[in-house]
Design goal:
The protein is an alpha+beta fold. It is built from nine helices and four strands; from the N terminus they run βαβββαααααααα. It holds the Pfam family GST_C_7.
Length: 229
């Protein structure tokens, strides 16, 4: 049985960049499940699996289709209980929900501003038109105006991660001694930046950067298969 992870790319299919798809790629590797990744550009997502979802990631596992990164992680945990756990119990699910909220509320917008023009330039012309229109509709500003705020976000980025830094003072991963899905959620956000705009602006001695490097090394360097921009 071939599992298929549908993900997001620009003109270059070898550079998938969605933070949500990266979460699922590491979750599958964590479970020791083989899969094939099939990246699609924004405007082709509606054609995947007869329009199953407006967004990626989408996982096909045999006859089963699952959308949304967190729903996919929950599905993998239930479908493969004998494989390494992604949550370690209900507490780990609650932790993952918190990290998801932290990532989306605190990290995603700064990364968007730092990476938005880089993402635009990675797309073909059709997707560039879609990207401009959809981001203006969602964020209320032209992408150039958002990008102009990127340098200020870059300067403040490390301080936004202080709660993570303090947590990692006590343990190597957010999940404790080994990674859980909570780690993959935040990893996905930083990997999104790494692939589109270059490594996150953190000093080499930053505990968060050291954690990120450990995550890049997981599963035979799965995260490093796409080089930094």
């Amino acid at each position: 049985m071939t599992r298929v992870l549908y993900s997001l790319c620009g003109k270059d299919e070898s550079r998938p960049f969605s933070p949500h798809c990266w979460k699922v790629a590491l979750a599958l590797a964590h479970k020791g499940l083989e899969f094939v990744e099939r990246p699609y550009p924004f405007t082709a997502i509606a054609n995947i699996e007869d329009g199953f979802s407006k967004t990626v990631p989408i996982l096909r596992d045999g006859d089963r289709l699952v959308r949304d990164s967190f729903e996919i992680a929950l599905y993998l945990e239930e479908a493969y209980p004998d494989r390494p756990t992604l949550f370690g119990g209900e507490g780990g699910k609650a932790l993952s929900r918190f990290i998801e909220s932290f990532s989306q509320m605190i990290v995603h917008m700064p990364v968007t501003k730092m990476a938005i023009m880089h993402i635009h330039d990675m797309l073909d012309e059709t997707d560039q038109v879609y990207f401009r229109e959809s981001r203006f509709e969602r964020l209320g500003k032209p992408i150039e105006e958002l990008a102009a705020e990127g340098e200020a976000e870059r300067a403040a980025f490390a301080s936004r991660l202080e709660p993570v830094r303090r947590t990692l003072h006590f343990q190597p991963f957010l999940g404790g001694d080994s990674p859980l899905f909570a780690d993959y959620i935040l990893f996905g956000a930083l990997q999104w930046m790494r692939v589109t705009a270059g490594p996150p602006p953190l000093s080499q001695d930053d505990t968060v950067l050291q954690w990120f490097e450990r995550c890049l090394d997981l599963y035979d360097g799965l995260g490093r298969r796409v080089v930094a921009a």
